[in-house]
Amino acid sequence: MRNEYDFSKAKRGAVIQSHGKTRITIMLDAHVIEEFRKRAGASGTGYQTEINRALRDYLAHGDQPFTLEALRQVIREELHAA
Fold first, then answer.
1. Any idea of the CA torsion for 65, 35, 82, 67, to the nearest 10 degrees?
2. Which of 5, 25, 38, 62 qualifies as a cystine partner to 58, CB 3.0-4.6 A?
């Protein structure tokens, strides 16, 4: 090993940058995290992946108004599950 290293051009951060993703800090309720951990365990993915998937689904469909047909579909699914 060298006695001295030149860190004058060094940068802080991850060694390998993740393209297309941004690291953030977010505060979520404990029961929300626990639910996503359960879902992640069932699907074999990470809980952060599941949160990301849920947010993408919301962004893709969350703007649409809740129609009477959508309500009927939800009721049918719930009655079928019961």
1. 0
2. 62
